[in-house]
Design goal:
Blueprint (H helix, E strand, L loop, with lengths): L11 E3 L6 E3 L4 E6 L2 E5 L8 E4 L3 H9 L2 H5 L9 H17 L1
Antiparallel strand pairs: 1-2, 3-4, 3-5
Length: about 100
């Protein structure tokens, strides 16, 4: 046997809110564009990205700790209104499907 397994390696990232590691598919990628935190659910926007669980708890922790500014290496404070709205809508949609 060659020692190889059929399981593919799943990339892991760290949530900037709760600081727990999770599979990249479980986290939401965030990108800074023109002083604003923009959600990147497909992971295709250019630039440096930060990852957060798509929950309000992790989002609030990241905002309180100023984690987006630090992780995205932004020169000043970032606006998170669009990000909060996206996470709220995703939470409502998830609860509706249950």
């Amino acid at each position: 046997m060659s020692g190889r397994t059929r399981d593919r390696a799943c990339p892991e990232r760290t949530c900037v809110g709760c600081r727990k590691r999770a599979a990249r598919t479980e986290l939401l990628r965030i990108v800074a564009i023109k002083g604003e935190c923009v959600p990147d659910p497909r992971g295709t926007l250019p630039g440096r990205g930060a990852y957060v669980h798509p929950t309000l708890v992790c989002l609030d922790q990241a905002v309180r700790r100023r984690a987006f500014t630090r992780a995205l290496r932004a020169p000043g404070a970032l606006d998170t209104k669009a990000l909060r709205q996206y996470v709220e809508q995703a939470t409502v949609a998830e609860q509706a499907t249950r």
